[in-house]
Hints:
It contains six helices and seven strands, in the order ββαββββαβαααα. By secondary structure, the protein is of the alpha+beta class. It has a seven-stranded antiparallel sheet, with helices on one face.
Amino acid sequence: MNFLDSITLTRTLPCLAEPGKIIVIGKPFRPLNEVIPYLATLPSIIAYNPERRTLTFRRQPGFLTIQDEEVHITQVKDVQEGLELFAALTESINAVWEHKAELVAVTTSKRTPRPLDVWSLLPQTNCKQCGEATCMAFAVNLLQQNRTLDECPVLLADADFSDRRITLETTLEG
């Protein structure tokens, strides 16, 4: 039996992050509070607050935020794409619910690392060998998955950075 029948489009807003695109906001057919801790086991999560039952995923492009009684999807082309995304999300929620016995519900907060978290583990030489002007720019691009750790020659070559590299690999896995 399905957990969720549908998500109904309730409104759209202009997307400030990308002019010409919209944010679609929908209301689930039923509250999502029971399924959100299981959805929090999925990859691409950038933030999860178990007390507020709020979960945000990174999607290409934009973000998907799920709350108990509302869903927001950013950087959507048009209403039709928004409706298709709501239908796909409904299917995903039902698939997770169907397999919940195999999952361990997440009960602790999660958040993605911030650029400063990543930068603090980089060599901070601003050598430009990676193609970026600064190590901070490289950190941001690592988080956006536009760069890989292998593109930092200093991190690769200097044995003093091996512990930092391992920490970075673990940090960026999610």
